[in-house]
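DM from R.C. (forwarded with permission)

"hey, sorry to bug you on a friday — could you get me a structure for this? deadline for the figure draft is monday and I only need the backbone to look sensible"
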Amino acid sequence: MFCFGPLPGERAVARIAQRKPSYAVAELVRLVEASPERADPFCPVFGTCGGCQVQHLAYDAQLRWKRDVVRNALRRIGGLDANVEETTASPLPRAYRNKMSLVVEHREERPVVGFYRARSHDVVPIDACPIVDEGLNAYIGAF
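My reply, with the result:
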């Protein structure tokens, strides 16, 4: 089952929203027990925008999580029991991205610039993106 919101080790109540032949997609109803590694997301549209997935996980825990994702994929898909080295921390955990794909939605009043909402084509309006380089953020307002 896939459910956005709960972190590894957390307990939550979720409601199944879609059933597929080999998996289900659920929506978080309520968090029962939070992880000590849970963090406050620094983006105002986190959880709405379809971009960042783990901003609510402390950065050092994100690095361990990413390593586990690679190790599990190699095991599950490739049948390999590979030694995966620790994830290298970025010197810039924010404002590091040098590319973004904005979406423009033409509304009656004026166009709206943003990113797609998770699993949809609805546009989430943004003024800036905290993971994008400052120079690129300046262009968002210019649109």
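R.C.: lifesaver. Strands lie at 2-3, 11-19, 24-33, 103-105, 112-116, 123-125.
me: no worries. The mean pLDDT is 92.
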